[in-house]
Write a structure and sequence with these properties.
By secondary structure, the chain is an alpha/beta fold. Helix content is about 45%, strand content about 20%. The relative contact order is 0.04.
Length: about 1000
């Protein structure tokens, strides 16, 4: 930016800033004053209007009260006088035309005299004058005249006996016309005036053109001023009118008069906001116009000033450029004797001083003194390679006298290797022009000295090369330290190699017995449950949990030692990213929900597949999710994935992608809303055996190995792992991997469909989300001669089943994501998998599912008798071949219908109305089969089943559930004809499970034959 522009901008800022501030303040003050004046005017107008209305109504009230006391009203009891009273009222009405009608009513509610003859003889309801007959005045507003239908206000006063004030002989009613207000309230055309009742309904409007306005309720139409007025406030505000348009509204509520409380009406005075605020807009335009004029004036003045200053600066710049080029004879000129003149004088004196200093620098003695005081070695070599000038430092280094070294050729000093020794002097001089290059000098005694060498060309005044200035620094001590550091590094690497080898050996030695401890503790737990030794279960669970924890720690140490020893192998395969993330969600969602957190997965449809190590990627994501869940409580954990075809600086997801690498990448981000970290904690995050902070380590535990291993896995797969965090704002880990990882040399391939037979045994696929179960399946079934493959989720199980075509499948029922029933349905609908025997392995304990309680089968209400007969013959054989059937049903009609229908089939039937009575029936003798309803009083079917399955004598009795639940219909279709047998974990030993698998396979083979 030019100086002229800077000065112009600075001057404009200094001059316009006060102007702008003054303009804004004056505009605001003026606007506030005008707005306040308008508001006060509208407020006063509303107050005056409602006051005038109160005054008119108060006057009418006093008039009617006085008429009721007139002597002529005493003739109400004399029928012959009613005509005279009517004539009097007629004249009175003509004298007071603001009244629509005046009528005299006897105690029976009959109009005996009226200003309008058509009203005479009418009988009025008692409610219209009961209060007046009790001696009190009655007021009512917004009534319609019964004759002409106009809106009126009603005044009713009692007529007392002249000689006995306690006696009321009738009432006088006068109806005052509301349209009379138009003669009182006559605002300007630009104003609108309304009277509203207590509930916000419009009673009067100054505009007669719109009759619909009387059917409006301003409070219901959100007119805030109406609500404030009804609440008893007086004021003015800018707000929406009945049509929603901005308006300036003044409002005030009736205050009445002494002895006359009024009707509680409120007055609203309105004017369109644009019209009301027109003076303010004119003031604003005036201020802006004045401001623009002043801006133009200031700009013109500042431009004139800066033009003069800029010319002076240009002269200074030209003189300074000539001085920089070596012309010390030039001088700056300026005639004025002000501060700028002093500056010019000082500048010219500086030029003369520079000229003198340069002359001093050229002086040889000065240069020699500088050279000889240098600590570094210095030599000046001419173009022929002869040393012309040296300093004392180089003489001390090379052990030459100051007079002996000059005249030697540079070849006598430099230790030249290779082709440099044969170069001519001219070429050698060119080789000397280097910067901080390691060379070796030869001393006079032949000893070599390492130096850091730099060479610079030396030129005369005509820019001709006359030699090279050579500077050397003795680095003997530095080289010695570097050598010591190298030996120390080699020793450390050797020690680290020994450590890694030791950890690997120890990890293997420890993991082998731990696997046995874990496996046997699982089997002992199952046997303890079967033997009802509940006292041992807790201890066995502690042994199993501690073993799993220690095994995990040893596995982490083993992985780290393998990585450091360079023995970790990648198993590269291509898989779908979305399916892998869905498996991760299914596995981790229950754990995350247990901690009160919410798991979100964002995976776009175009993410596609990735070619890398599935196991290691899954381990990385599981570790990051575990950390996020550990340090987040009742928060949100999000996994986001994106495919980056080409890095873009505008893409925030691609900020961790190397912009110089064009290869497509996939980015995984695991973020949480947990406790976060400081920058100091993040600096220690990826150090092995180190926690980010001692306090968090004590609270949350951990070994500090997970993130270290995860980062090394990322690097092995050609990617990177980074972290960003703020204390209290959560943490985000970003994993960036190439879409196609390089195949490691000699890496083993993943097993495929062609490799399903690992030995001479038969292939069995075990699908279970529990890693412990999968491990036990492999160990125990392998002993029986099977080749066991495993899958950790339903989706993976289907994929592996299509690849392997196993002889049998063991399938867990309860799995996250795709449960066992969904997997089973998918298998049976696939012709390639439909004939494979499936053994269901269930550990369900949800009371809302009948099978979790050990039910043998079920039917739905209404009962299909043909199907029920088939089930009875299946589980209880034929009628009369076993014991009786027990029906446990609380509905007597259903119970009787079942008993009668079963009796026709030849069955002996016993009945119970609920679970308690059903247990009593069992104690009298076990039945051949139980028909059980779920929803019953006292003890329902779920509690009955729990009691039944815990009793050794009853647990083998077949049970058919009879229920009306919709859920069981789908479960029945999945079960019928698809499942060979259901086995609950803990009810059969591993050997029995193996025998069942063998029997299933044998049955399948016999079917195929």
């Amino acid at each position: 930016m030019r100086v002229r522009t800077k000065i112009l901008g600075f001057c404009l800022l200094l001059s316009l800033l006060p102007l702008v501030v003054i303009g804004i303040l004056s505009n605001r003050i003026g606007t506030a004053a005008v707005a306040e004046g308008l508001g006060n005017s509208f407020k006063q107008s509303a107050a005056d209007t409602i006051r005038e209305v109160d005054r008119v109504l108060f006057s009418a009230d006093r008039d009617v009260q006085a008429w009721a006391k007139l002597g002529v009203m005493q003739d109400i009891l004399i029928p012959e006088k009613h005509v005279e009273i009517t004539a009097f009222l007629f004249g009175l009405n003509r004298q007071y035309p603001e009244f629509s009608s005046i009528q005299l009513i006897d105690r029976d509610g009959v109009v005996v005299a009226a200003s309008k003859p058509e009203l005479i003889g009418r009988s009025l309801p008692n409610a219209d004058y009961a209060q007046a007959l009790a001696g009190r005045r009655m007021l009512s507003d917004d009534r319609l005249d019964p004759i002409d239908g106009k809106r009126v206000v009603r005044f009713v006063f009692p007529v007392h006996e002249i000689f006995d004030e306690t006696q009321i002989i009738g009432v006088l009613e006068a109806e005052w016309r509301l349209d009379h207000l138009h003669e009182i309230i006559n605002p300007d055309e630009e104003y609108r005036m309304f009277l509203i009742q207590k509930d916000g309904r419009v009673l009067f409007a100054s505009e007669r053109r719109d009759p619909d306005v009387y059917r409006q309720n301003f409070i219901e139409r959100n007119v805030e001023a109406a609500r404030l007025a009804v609440a008893g406030q007086t004021g003015a505000r800018i707000g929406a009118d009945e049509n929603g348009s901005p308006s300036l509204i003044g409002y005030s509520r009736s205050q009445g008069f002494p002895g006359f409380e009024g009707f509680g009406w409120s007055a609203l005075v309105m004017q369109d906001a644009e019209v009301a605020l027109a003076p303010i807009r004119r003031l604003e335009r005036s201020v802006v116009t004045l401001g623009l004029i002043m801006v133009v004036v200031v700009v013109v003045v500042v431009v004139l000033i800066t033009r003069k200053v800029n010319g002076l600066i240009g002269d200074f710049s030209r003189v300074a450029g000539r001085v920089a080029a070596g012309d010390f004879e030039c001088q700056a000129t300026y005639r004025s004797r002000d501060e700028i003149g002093d500056l010019v004088h000082t500048f010219n004196r500086m030029i003369r001083d520079l000229k003198e200093q340069r002359a001093q620098l050229v002086d040889k003695d000065y240069v020699d003194s500088v050279i000889h005081t240098m600590n570094d070695s210095l030599m000046v070599v001419d173009t022929s390679g002869v040393i012309r000038t040296v300093n004392r430092a180089v003489c001390r280094l090379l052990k030459y006298g100051e007079q002996r070294l000059p005249g030697h050729n540079i070849r006598d000093i430099l230790v030249l290797n290779g082709d440099a020794a044969d170069l001519p002097d001219g070429k050698l001089i060119e080789r000397l022009v280097v910067l901080n290059t390691e060379m070796r000098f030869r001393r006079s005694d032949g000893q070599e000295v390492p130096v850091s060498f730099s060479g610079t060309l030396l030129r005369d005044n005509h820019r001709n090369v006359i030699g090279v200035v050579c500077v050397g620094q003795d680095i003997t001590d530095r080289k010695r330290v570097e050598e010591e550091l190298r030996h120390a590094k080699e020793a450390a690497e050797l020690a680290n190699s020994y450590k890694s080898q030791f950890l690997a050996n120890m990890s293997h030695e420890l993991r082998t017995p731990l696997n046995a401890i874990i496996g046997y503790s699982e089997m002992l737990q199952e046997e303890a449950v079967d033997m009802e030794l509940e006292g041992f279960c807790s201890d066995l669970q502690k042994i199993h949990g501690s073993g799993r924890h220690l095994l995990g720690l040893i596995n982490d140490i083993l992985d780290l030692s393998k990585i450091e020893a360079g023995k970790m192998t990648l198993y590269v395969e291509e898989f779908d990213v979305a399916s892998m993330l869905e498996d991760a969600r299914a596995t981790f969602d229950p754990l995350i929900r247990k901690n009160g957190n919410q798991l979100l997965v964002e995976c776009p449809e175009n993410v596609g597949a990735i070619h890398t190590d599935l196991t290691k990627l899954r381990q990385i994501l599981f570790n990051l999710l575990s950390n996020a869940n550990k340090f987040t409580d009742h928060g949100r954990i999000k996994v986001a994935v994106a495919r980056i075809e080409a890095p873009s600086p505008d893409d925030p997801v691609a900020e961790d992608v190397d912009a110089n690498d064009p290869a497509p990448r996939i980015v995984f981000q695991v973020s949480d809303t947990g406790i976060g970290m400081t920058s100091e904690q993040m600096s220690r995050l990826f150090t092995a055996f180190t926690q980010a902070d001692e306090s968090t380590a004590k609270k949350y535990g951990g070994t500090g190995l997970g993130l270290t291993i995860s980062r090394k896995f990322c690097e092995m797969m050609g990617g990177r792992l980074s972290v960003s965090s703020e204390p209290g704002a959560g943490t985000t880990f970003t994993v960036t991997l190439p879409v196609r990882a390089a195949e490691p040399p000699g890496a083993p391939a993943r097993s495929t469909a062609s490799q399903k037979e690992k030995g001479s045994g038969i292939a069995v696929l075990s699908i279970d989300d529990d890693a412990n179960v999968r491990e036990l399946m492999i160990r125990h079934l392998s002993r029986e001669g099977y080749d066991v493959e495993t899958a950790a989720s339903g989706q993976e199980g289907l994929r592996r089943a299509r690849e392997l075509r196993p002889a049998a499948i063991t399938l867990d029922v309860m799995m996250p994501g795709m449960d066992g029933w969904a997997v089973l349905s998918a298998m049976k609908s696939d012709p390639a998998l439909a004939d494979i025997p499936v053994v269901m392995v269930s550990v369900v304990d949800d009371k809302n599912l009948a099978f979790s309680l050990g039910a043998t089968d079920y039917v739905t209400k209404p009962v299909e008798w043909h199907r029920l007969s088939q089930l009875l013959r299946k589980y209880a054989h034929s009628p009369g071949s076993g014991g009786p059937l027990l029906i446990v049903e609380d509905d007597p009609d259903t119970r009787a219908l079942l008993a009668r229908q079963l009796a026709r089939e030849g069955w002996s039937v016993r009945e119970a109305a609920n679970g308690v009575l059903g247990l009593e029936q069992l104690r009298s003798g076990p039945p051949a089969l139980i028909l059980l309803d779920l929803m019953m009083p006292e003890m329902d079917g779920f509690e009955f089943m729990e009691t039944l399955r815990t009793d050794q004598n009853w647990r083998n009795i077949p049970v058919i559930i009879i229920t009306a639940k919709d859920l069981t219909a789908e479960e029945r279709e999945r079960l019928n004809g698809q499942v060979i047998k259901i086995i609950e974990k803990g009810t059969l030993s591993i050997s029995d499970l193996a025998a069942e698998i063998a029997a299933s396979i044998q049955r399948n083979l016999s079917w195929e034959i």
